């Protein structure tokens, strides 16, 4: 579920990443009640489109919602339609997020902007939970008798930020950046206990990957270095952006 901190981050990315005309077209995937669209409309005179698994949730008056099953259906839009595509707290609900990234690339215009968010698996509290219990924060054991796709029961795909970056790159995006929506205060104390061991063991693993397995290259190095950054050890939600060349 998206939060106001996530919405604020998305709005800031739109403001920072491009000079869009007043007639720019924005698509919000997984639009829910339409809160992000409402906030966008308060700031810009964009033409907005929305899609979700249902149109029963939308609360923005006059906003049409196109119904789509993101696991099986292509986005119901022509190529090169949108200037901006937002997709907040959606990919963790999908069976194949890379397929959606390719669809987003298809419907974006040249120089179009994509903004994604998903729970941050590398938050220190999430790392501790995985170490002790084997499950990331917000990705607990799934019930076998039901899956409610709209809540955390529907978090079926924990996606590490690096694989979002890789998926965006493979889809064709450039200028890919990663940030977080906010720091979790409750993580600061935990990080103070584990910071030195993480940095020491992380450096050893980095050296092994670089020189033994040779998985680290010039192109992926900046993103590998983010793994143990303060943003990703303290941040609650990953925000990823990319531009279509």
Automatic annotation (TrEMBL):
All copies of the Methyltransferase type domain together span 27-116
- Name by which UniProt lists this protein: 2-polyprenyl-3-methyl-5-hydroxy-6-metoxy-1, 4-benzoquinol methylase
Q: Its Gene Ontology biological processes? A: methylation
Q: What keywords are annotated for this sequence in UniProt?
A: Methyltransferase, Transferase
Q: Which gene encodes it?
A: ubiG
GO terms of molecular function: S-adenosylmethionine-dependent methyltransferase activity
One Pfam match: Methyltransf_11
Q: Which InterPro entries match?
A: Methyltransf_11, SAM-dependent_MTases_sf
TM spans (from-to)? none
**Keyword Lipid metabolism carried by entry:** no
Species in which this protein is naturally found: Methylacidiphilum infernorum (isolate V4)
